[in-house]
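Weekly modeling sync, notes
Attendees: S.R. (lead), two postdocs, one rotation student

Agenda item 3: backlog of single-chain predictions. S.R. asked that every request posted to the team notebook include the full sequence so nobody has to chase files. The rotation student volunteered to paste the first one in as an example of the format we agreed on. Action items at the bottom.

Example entry:
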Amino acid sequence: MITVVAGILRDDAGRVLLTQRLPGKHLAGSWEFPGGKCEPGETPISALVRELGEELGIEVATSRPVLSLTHHYPDQRVRLLIREVDAWQGKPFGREGQPLRWVALDDMADLAMPAADRPIVRTLDLDARYAITPDPVQAGGIDGLIQSWQACLDAGYRLLQLRAHSLDSASLARLAERLGNLARPYRARWLLNGPADIAVATGADGLHLRHADLASHSQRPVSDELLLAASCHDADSLARAAQLGADFVCLSPVRATASHHQARPLGWDGFAALSALSALPVLALGGVKPEDLGLAREHGAWGVAGISAFGGS
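Predicted structure, as returned to the notebook:
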């Protein structure tokens, strides 16, 4: 296992700095986030300060964890720790002769990048707070669910999931179109927890798979243009979600919840141990609140997800 820490540096236009691997290096020619290996006994913060000083000639002032994942290359495993660099001194330049490039998020998909970096790219413009609707039965009907959806939008959440398994297909499709219209003016992204064909037909930004759905798919059920997320509870489901090409996963339950009182909570230590196995960005779910985002990221998460604490009923 190799532990690598990399930094996200953004300019005033919101573009992200990438560096190109030099000839003779592993995956030469590919573009990546600047950083490098953590030395034995070195903290991720110290490693990032050292690496960006050596690579870019800058002095990192502040950084914070964003996400982590583990990628299995044919010849090695890489534990990748991503930190947002909020402030630095100096102007970045390639001290080792490597090309640098400030890249808009929409243009990253056109670049050759290491496979481990691809899931990171998909999350850079997403809200790390995933608001999930209550089922209409718990929300007091369709009107209550719509009110919960609007409350999430008004609260500033820009990544939402429609979860309404008690509805028949026709009712779900009508509701999805209505909620999609509400989300559009806010430029929010939303995923449907339901049939893939309804997600596509109603203009959803993506599909969310239940834990039980993972085994029923032999390939990615939606195109790469749409987001794909999955609910996971163990190492096997995390691996399966990666095999299907999901973009991110929810791992639960972190804490005990009334809706799943029979499930044994992972606790933050258990969550950290399981999320360290994931090849995808992980959202902490189950008794988690929006204000737990910093705590979740300290334990390897990309973000947090929930229902009632995010404005749902």
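Discussion: group reviewed the output briefly. The chain has nine helices and 15 strands.
Action items: rotation student to repeat for the remaining queue; S.R. to check formatting next week.
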